[in-house]
Amino acid sequence: MYHVSGTRFTPLLVLASLMDLILKRAWDELTWLSVGTAGFLLIVDRWLKPLFDRARPHETLVEVSGRSFPSDHATGAVVFYFLMCAFLSKRYPQWRRPLYIGSAIWVALIWISTLNTRVHWPTHIVAGARVGFIWLSVCLTNWKLAAARQSERNRVLAP
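Above: the chain's sequence. Below: its structure in token form.
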């Protein structure tokens, strides 16, 4: 599960989602999915991990290297899966509840897998989740503000 969520499945899903948004010309969603995924990597890997410089648990069950705190798996799972829920819920409101429930279960499984493989301490997961929810809130707020501004522009320009 750890490798599927972090190095195989999720990156392919992100790429497929970006391509789908390009094909659908969903520019606002494309922008915020790009900002969301690139932003969390920048925040966690370039700023927070060097700042805290915490080591991983010593006896991991998978080969990993690098700093550990906060967990970028926890952050990325929150940001990507819940951004996609918001985007898909806008297009398919009848699927809102199953999308969020399914994503919450999947994100929880990702968090549990990082604990089971001993790649992160529980505090690393909690911190990563908190960073993820904060960054998700920033992205969703700006996505909604951009949509409101576009709607207002369209209303003003309409004959």
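The longest helix spans residues 122-157.
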